[in-house]
Amino acid sequence: MWKTTARRMIIMIPQILLLSILVFLLAKAMPGDALTGLLDPSIDPAALEAQRERLGLNNPWYVQYWDWFTKALQGDFGQSFRFKMPVADLIGQRMMNTVWLSLLTLVLTYLIAIPLGIISGRYHDTWADRMITGYTYLGFAAPLFIFALLMLWAFGFHFGWFPTEGSVTPGLTPGTWEHVVSKFYHILLPALSMALITTVTTVQLLRSEIIDTKQRDFIITARAKGASEARVYNRHILRNSLLPIAAFFGYEITGLIGGTVFIESIFSYPGMGQLFLSSISLRDFSVVTALVLLYGAASIIGALLSDMILSAVDPRIRIK
Amino acid sequence: MPFLEVQDLKVHFPVRGGIFNRKLRSIKAVDGIRLAIEQGQTYGLVGESGSGKTTTGRAIIGLNPITSGTVLFEGKPILGGGVRSRPGFRRDIQMIFQDPYSSLNPKKRVLDIVAEPLRNFEKLSAQEERRRVQQLLEQVGLSPETIHKYPHEFSGGQRQRIGIARAIALKPKLIIADEPVSALDVSVQAQVLNFLKDIQKQLKLTYLFISHDLGIIRHMCDHIGIMYKGRYVEQGTTADIFENPQHIYTKRLITAIPDMDPSKRERLIKFREAVKAEYEQAYEQYFDEEGLAYPLRPVSKTHLAALPEKG
Amino acid sequence: MNEELLRIENLTTSFRILDDYYAAVDDVSLTVRKNEILAIVGESGSGKSALAFSIMGLHTRARIEGSIFYKGQDIAALPPSKLNKLRGNELGMIFQDPLSALNPLMVVGSQIEEVILLHHPKVSAKERKRKVIDLLTKVGIPRPEHTYELFPHELSGGMRQRIVIAIAIANEPKLLIADEPTTALDVTIQLQILELIRRLKNDSEAGVVLITHDLGVVAEMADRVAVMYAGQIVEIADIYTLLSDARHPYTRSLLQSIPSAGSAKSRLHVIQGIVPSLQNLPRQGCRFRTRIPWIDESAHEEQPGMHEIAPGHFVRCTCYKSFRFPDQKEGGARHAIS
């Protein structure tokens, strides 16, 4: 088991290296460089050139890359020209906001998916199943950002039940109970909006797993043992059907990254996703590259997590 | 000169593991097989699951890479790449697979399935091709009107006939039949076995017949090789093997065949117990430390058995 | 000497296909006695497995008509809660494919334990485990303590089938239904499993229904045989009579079509045509008549019934009286090469 994990970790290193090269080259390919936006246009082009030479911007790309990469390894992703502060600090401020939002979304996703999936799978081809599948089709069809906008409009502006921006009411002291409640109040609507859409994949997956497991031979064995239907479901069908759901958990994280980018912007929630979109539109490239690298690494770790969970819960693929 | 000769065939599969996925050891699926088949004869390869009989067949036709050894077809070597290495061999050697349900592409019509080898090797006009396919279908006892149907519209036995029509489309000389009837019902089995015998006579075919069913092997084959863990334990004519088995493994295999006479039950049970006792007692004598068979030694002109040194 | 355990009367099991019901088991009547092996032989589509599933009440979407009396009680009419007291307890079942019949995510020990727990909830966990170890030993598994903790995929096919058998016999059933128990196994393993079933039957004096397509297995195991074709029983007899004096054309054809050890190299008999699918069964008259077209139509009955031609020997339809095999040429000429 640990060997597989170790092997997967080792494979991850070239994956992340490759990703970082790609990200770096993309950033380089964009017009302008770190000096273009920083300096007064009246400055002498010769001085500018000297400055470039001094900063190493005229070196070949791999030298620049190595320079950037070694700094990045130490947590130095350069300066954000918009906020005039180190990128690492900037992201650090917002990271926790995104983590909390993702966490709540995950919890809500499973809270919705598991009961719906079970009802839909166990009583498939009944009206309850049809309603649930109908909802999942809607979820598949509705673009997240449109659905989120609708939620924001309805529950934020129209009914006024939820705040429409920010991650906390300004002026509260961190650490107080009010601060925590306010934080939760702020993430509830964005998290719910995202969960309602992303959960449909899990509902469908669980439903088809249950329908599939129901028809397997070992279920007949369980019935032939004299097990009641309730026991057949709880002991055999559910346990076996939840396994792929558990394994899917890691990929769920990857999906969340895409979701938070939209959701945070729509709800003006100060997380990494919102920072990402606004940095793109303002060409704050040092921030963008750092975030892409971070997201990429998170996706790779998510996939690794999925594989590890699967090999932990499914005896068939355990490596001896 | 034998028609097909296999010399010291070895097929080893690497087992990988560890952090860097290195080759740790290899599984010797086939470990030094020699066999020779004369033209027009049927050679039976018998063994239990995991004995390497299927791998041997697949290696000869080039579906599994050969680790070492040579395969001579009509005296000419088929190189490491198996049949693939010389286009001529690909025409002359064909294979019939075990499962008629998965070996036919469900999205293709019978016409396309049977014509596929023709399209690879012969440039026929659409009309000629159609005529040839219809002829082939008639040959295997299917109605020529069925060319536009899909595999799912046929029964198991009919599907196996479609597989056979495809195999004989290029007028091959050797057919490797890997468990061709084990997925079929008894009455359908009879149909396919009879038919294989018929076309053998008509087309002067040579068969390498792979099966775990000794009743069928006895019915079909002239010569038999018995495999265990990648090696031969015994080889000989059908009479040698069934009437004068030498190796304890062969004896045990033959006594395990169900007997059609219920009045012999009591006697059989006792006889089998005796054979089983002999097998268990003599196991270490007949197999080496790894549980593998010893090299074959001649028993008679046609009969070889992997008997221990002492004899 | 032999008391009757199971009596099936006019059992018809039908499945719904689109808007109609089609009988996979059609008007089957038979009995199984204590300490007896009744073999049910047939090819795929004959309804033999559907019959086994009907006895165990394992069909979820079928219409069952007729009665299945187990010790005088009609178990086809029992509510699920009552039936569950019998299944796994007095009625044990062995399945065809031991890999898919076992839960891939449970160690085999707990799968055997479950059936003890279900019917003897008061037995302590320790006692239960001991019983499982005993069972594993009984079905011939070496190192039972070690095997207890293994998952199904870690065992060989023969070992898995032993686990399935251990589940079936855990509560010492009076009636054991074995649905093609050796189809997926090698010959030597098949023999071991058959010997195991025979030994268990002798020890417990249970009645056994052995479902198989393999006449060799039947000849080795059965006391009596029922031959099924297209959902119906066409012949029932004791094993000696069936192998030496079979009457029904289908039984006779089947016996002729196996490559037997004695008659090596001769041609095998081929039954003309194909087994009709469930939807295309001839619903009236003798179902086998389309496969023996050279027999005169008048030889068949309009409503073929079972005729007792000797004590305990039943044959369906009257066509057996005038049945003969077509001359040898019939089979050979059809594959003529153009």
Could you write a compact summary of the structure shown?
The complex is a heterotrimer of chains A (320), B (311) and C (338). Chain A has 320 residues and is mostly helical. Chain A has helices spanning 2-29, 45-55, 61-73, 87-122, 127-141, 144-158, 177-214, 217-224, 229-266, 272-281, 285-313, and strands spanning 79-80, 85-86.
User: Total domains of chain A, how many?
Assistant: 2
Structural class of chain C: alpha/beta
Beta strands of chain C, count: 12
Number of strands of chain A: 2
Average pLDDT taken over every residue of chain A: 84
What value does the average pLDDT of chain C take? Answer: 88
Topology:
The complex is a heterotrimer of chains A (320), B (311) and C (338).
Chain A (H helix, E strand, L loop, with lengths): L1 H28 L15 H11 L5 H13 L5 E2 L4 E2 H36 L4 H15 L2 H15 L18 H38 L2 H8 L4 H38 L5 H10 L3 H29 L7
Antiparallel strand pairs in A: 1-2
Chain B lengths: L3 E14 L4 E16 L4 E5 L6 H9 L6 E6 L2 E3 L8 H6 E4 L13 H12 L4 H14 L16 H13 L5 E5 L7 H18 L2 E6 L2 H7 L2 E6 L2 E7 H6 L4 H8 L9 H22 L10 E2 L5 E2 L6
Parallel strand pairs in B: 3-8, 3-9, 6-7, 7-8
Antiparallel strand pairs in B: 1-2, 1-4, 4-5, 9-10, 10-12, 11-12
Chain C lengths: L3 E14 L2 E14 L3 E5 L6 H9 L5 E9 L2 E2 L5 H7 L4 E4 L13 H12 L5 H14 L5 H5 L8 H13 L5 E5 L7 H18 L2 E6 L2 H7 L2 E6 L2 E7 H6 L4 H9 L48 E5 L2 E4 L12 H5 L5
Parallel strand pairs in C: 3-8, 3-9, 6-7, 7-8
Antiparallel strand pairs in C: 1-2, 1-4, 4-5, 9-10, 10-12, 11-12
Description:
Helices cover about 75% and strands about 0% of the residues of chain A. The termini of chain A are close together. Chain A is mainly alpha-helical. Chain B has about 300 residues and is α/β, with parallel strands linked by helices. Chain B has one domain (about 5-230): P-loop containing nucleotide triphosphate hydrolases (Rossmann fold), CATH 3.40.50. Chain B is built from 10 helices and 12 strands. Chain B has helices at about 55-60, 85-90, 110-120, 125-140, 155-170, 185-205, 215-220, 240-245, 250-255, 265-285; strands at about 5-15, 20-35, 40-45, 70-75, 75-80, 95, 175-180, 205-210, 225-230, 230-235, 295-300, 305. Chain B starts with a strand and ends in a 6-residue tail after the last strand. Chain C is α/β, with parallel strands linked by helices and about 350 residues long. In chain C, about 30% of the residues lie in helices and about 25% in strands. Chain C has helices at about 50-55, 80-85, 110-120, 125-140, 145-150, 155-170, 185-205, 215-220, 240-245, 250-255, 330-335, and strands spanning about 5-15, 20-35, 35-40, 60-70, 75, 90-95, 175-180, 205-210, 225-230, 230-240, 305-310, 315. An 8-stranded mixed β-sheet of chain C has the order 6-7-8-3-9-10-12-11, with helices on both faces. Chain C has a 4-stranded antiparallel β-sheet with strand order 2-1-4-5. In chain C, helix 3 (about 110-120) packs across helix 4 (about 125-140) and helix 3 (about 110-120) runs parallel beside helix 6 (about 155-170). Chains in contact: A-B, A-C, B-C.
